[in-house]
Design a protein that fits this description.
Number of domains: 3
Strand content: 15-25%
Strand order of the largest sheet: 4-3-2-1-5
Structural class: alpha+beta
Largest sheet: 5 strands, antiparallel
Length: about 290
């Protein structure tokens, strides 16, 4: 190719490129600005909704994580479609392709979809709420901090952070320790076999009834749990508010021991009497 023809073609290419850039650059800049504004708007909307949920007592705090996630993702999807339209891309074909891709991705990520479905069921049936103390077995236990679209955040009693997939909470037997308003606190004691059970019962009941945190209805009770070889086992049971359960158990254990000692009861320890027998001396044999 002669040099003059190459220069002419290069000049034509640069001219067409500049013409395309002059025509497309405004759309690209507008799409970039739209994308940046949309991402900022999604974050702002999610944060604002979270603050509204925190301030309004009509909203269950358990819904906060899922609602904020749904709002953020919905705005991002709308913004992406608008950006594609701004760039001149036919969104109808894009949506059809995304639908087919979504089906393929859904089949590949069945575990993720099961977590979303489990999260929806957890929010619908409400076996626990934010702030509840739960135990799902397999070392999954703690205070619920947030129920998200994919997973639930738990903080254990010793300050350990747990990120638990929702499906693991939905498919397991779950214990909620704080769902009920009251709980039964129990403290067990051992007294000597010779001690007066009735006197021990009176001492424990008097102590329990004097504690303002113990519920009067149902009334506290002392039951005979077992009689062993070395002691009588008795159990002090009292109902208390769930928020007071731990301190009440501690108080019943410490105060109950002190009340039994002050009433003259003996707190025995396992022991065994051993009797040794010396065999009689053998008779001398005849000569």
């Amino acid at each position: 190719m002669p040099p003059q023809d190459a220069i002419t073609e290069a000049s034509a290419f640069v001219t067409s490129l500049m013409a395309w850039a002059a025509q497309a650059l405004p759309n690209v800049l507008a799409a970039a600005l739209l994308l940046a504004a949309g991402l900022w708007l999604s974050g702002w909307a999610a944060r604002t909704l979270g603050r509204l949920v925190d301030r309004d007592s009509r909203f269950d705090p358990t819904l906060k994580g899922v609602l904020t996630s749904l709002v953020r993702y919905a705005i991002v999807i709308i913004v992406l479609i608008a950006v594609l339209g701004q760039l001149g891309i036919q969104t109808t074909s894009i949506l059809a392709a995304l639908g087919a891709a979504g089906l393929a991705i859904g089949l590949a990520l069945q575990g993720t979809l099961s977590n979303i479905a489990a999260g929806m069921m957890l929010l619908w049936l409400r076996p626990f709420r934010t702030g509840d103390v739960i135990d799902a077995g397999d070392d999954v236990a703690g205070t619920v901090k947030e129920v998200g679209l994919f997973a639930t955040e738990l903080h254990s009693w010793d300050g350990v952070y747990q990120f638990v997939p929702n499906a693991q909470l939905w498919n397991k037997r779950l214990i909620n320790y704080t769902r009920q308003p009251t709980r039964l606190a129990e403290a067990k004691f051992r007294i000597a076999l010779s001690d007066d059970i009735a006197a021990a019962r009176r001492a424990l009941l008097a102590f329990a009834e004097a504690d303002a945190r113990v519920q009067a209805d149902p009334a506290p009770e002392v039951i005979l749990a077992a009689i062993t070889d070395s002691a009588v086992e008795i159990s002090l049971r009292a109902w208390a508010r769930t928020a007071d359960y731990g301190p009440v158990v501690q108080a019943l254990t410490e105060g109950g021991k002190r009340a039994l000692e002050e009433s003259g009861m003996t707190l025995p320890f396992p022991q065994r009497d051993v009797h040794l027998r010396t065999p009689a001396a053998a008779a001398p044999s005849a000569a």
